[in-house]
């Protein structure tokens, strides 16, 4: 009888150890992929606003659908293209 109790206790210990290891790994995984927290402080907020102000408008090419900076646009027939090659293609 004592042998059965010993083995049952051993099995429970092993299960408990495995479950705690899994929980630990999940916690580590969640911390790794959690979104970076909002930067605290006024300076960080200003830096973020500057990045947004410097961001350039993106346009989509009427031929290939790629997004590119608006400053590189090639306009033809009232539409925006990513390059002169796509702008001059017939029937686009
Ligand atoms: Zn294109």
Any overview of this molecule?
This protein has helices at residues 2-33, 42-54, 84-87; strands spanning 58-60, 67-69, 74-76, 79-81. The chain is α+β, with helices and mostly antiparallel strands and 92 residues long. The chain folds into 2 domains: 1-33; 53-92, no CATH class. It has a two-stranded antiparallel sheet. Strands 3-4 form a two-stranded antiparallel sheet. The model has no long low-confidence stretch (mean pLDDT 84). The site of zinc ion has 8 residues, from loops. Residues 61, 63-64, 66, 81-83, 86 line the site of zinc ion.
Order of helices and strands: HHEEEEH
Low-confidence runs: none
Bound molecules: zinc ion
Instruction: Count the domains.
Output: 2
Overall pLDDT level: 84
Region (Disordered): 27-46
Biased composition (Low complexity): 35-46
InterPro entries: PP0621-like
């Amino acid at each position: 009888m004592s042998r059965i109790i010993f083995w049952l206790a051993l099995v429970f210990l092993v299960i408990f150890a495995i479950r705690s290891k899994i929980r630990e790994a999940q916690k580590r995984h969640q911390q790794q992929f959690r979104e970076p927290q909002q930067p605290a402080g006024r300076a960080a907020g200003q830096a973020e606003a500057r990045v947004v102000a410097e961001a350039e408008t993106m346009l989509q090419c009427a031929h290939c659908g790629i997004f590119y900076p608006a400053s590189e646009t090639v306009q033809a027939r009232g539409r925006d293209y990513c390059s002169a090659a796509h702008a001059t293609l017939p029937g686009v």
